Amino acid sequence: MADAVRIAMFGGTFNPVHVGHLRAAIELREQLALDQVHMIVNREPPHRQVPGVSGQDRFAMLSAAVAPLDGIVADARELEREGPSYTVDTLRSLRDQYGADARLMMVVGVDAFLGLASWRQPDVLFSLAHIVVIQRPGAELVLSDEVAALVDGRKADGIDDLMARTSGCYLPLRLPTPIELSATAIRERLALGQDTRYLLAPEVLGVIAERQLYRQQ
Description:
By secondary structure, the chain is α/β, with parallel strands linked by helices. It is built from nine helices and six strands. The mean pLDDT is 94.
């Protein structure tokens, strides 16, 4: 269906959401002609430490950051579920919301994609969505044997090929202006009282100041 809705899930701890995240969401929407990008805050990320800042605070920062952006929404559905934030559950929720004909995409970075075999029900992910892999400049996508077996025959030839189906493929994608930023380094700067202008959106800085987040204890 040429007019099927196009939706992307872009998840993360967003601790804090920074301009690299926001620029990626904007360019994803442009490159893939998406109707909406759901930026989804993890409650308990299965593969990393639980963030020291609450989900409510991280969602407040994200909501403030995306408020001026068309077609990009802050999504709290993982915060509303108990237990670890498994992507397969979130994709099921989005598929139920948008229907069987929607072009549903899960957006991940290279590191996450290379660990795909360790995710919960990785084979089921492809029954629910496509996977769009954001590549780093100059980096090659070298797959382990486990991941190569999981994605064998699933690589799309391009965006049009991806959108011809509702799910089941993966596509490596290079964004026009990738921004490499470390949320850990940003938190360290905030704890030391150092300047984070142009790393964080002004709206995010406003929430951080209002809620006194990331202060050195």
